[in-house]
Amino acid sequence: MKIKLSLIACLVVNCFLGVCRGGGLIKNFYRETCPQAEDIINTVTREHVFAKPELPAKLIRIQFHDCFVRGCDASVMLDSTANNTGEKKSIPNLTLTAGFDVIDVIKEAVEEKCPGIVSCADILALAARDAVSVQFNRPMWEVLTGRRDGTISNAFDVVDNIPAPFLNFTQLMQNFRSKNLTLQDLVVLSGAHTLGVSHCNLINSRIYNFTGKGDHDPSLNSTYVEYLKTKCYNQSLDDTTTTVEMDPNSSTTFDSSYYSILLQNKGMFQTDVELLATRHSRKIVNELVDQSTFFKQFARSMKRLGSIEVLTGPAGEIRRNCSVVNS
Questions:
Q1: Is the pTM for the entire model greater than 0.85?
Q2: Max alpha carbon distance in the chain (Å)?
């Protein structure tokens, strides 16, 4: 009995200090304090997805970028100040503006009903889930809540934590392990590339000048290379406006086609190709071609992603405005 009480006391103290790695999150955290919260978030998110079909890709990418830098604390939402350049201004986050705007709209709607209660971090996690779930008309994964918002956002942290599209397999694994994520999580979460587009400057070297001799990456399907060239016709690495679908003809549909594409050597980024680098990772790719398996595994990995280094208890704050720390 004493052992059990000591264990419980230890867990309570750790969560109170805000150091639980997901342990402080629960289902329906706002049931008593703001019972309308999740319905409001879902309703506003759906309205915006119907108007902007590209939104699910942006919101799920924002959540990934947020959780990989300082944990899932909505630090990616903070604006820069006179003395600090925030994560928003880092190069990997410059294309996410439309997604930030939607989170701000959702936050305003929630604040109107329940001021100072619901964190931006929880709103982001719920909105990303709800946006992807619109096409299915049901939640595609469970989101536990109770996160609090961080007060620090530094652009320099992004490059050190967000996996660049040219990393090799070893580097990818090191990156994911540093977040307590597994090989399974790496392969599964990469499936989010079934949604959205890439800017051509990120892949031009692979299709136009891979070794500096005007050639393409030999690991790429040659027919796919020609297709990419029709989309990324400007060979400049400075072209930050031209885009191409990461999952051809399916960039607004959440499905498992990404894995079929990988097995045809049509992975857009080097990080996609690297998922086939080992026997184990290739086995996982083959398993995820089955859509029901992908959905089930994605739900598990998103739950793990959403618990990375969360702030709970008195740690952090509940921002009144997602882009500004409370004064």
A1: yes
A2: 71
Q: How does the average pLDDT of the chain come out, rounded?
A: 92
Catalytic residue (choose from 48, 65, 193, 216): 65
Residue 279, token pair as written in the block: 């026997």
Domains (range + CATH), the chain = 24-162 (1.10.520.10), 169-304 (1.10.420.10)
| pLDDT per residue as tens digits for the range 200-225 | 989 999 999 999 989 999 999 999 99
Active site annotation includes 65: yes
pLDDT at 1 (0 to 100):
44
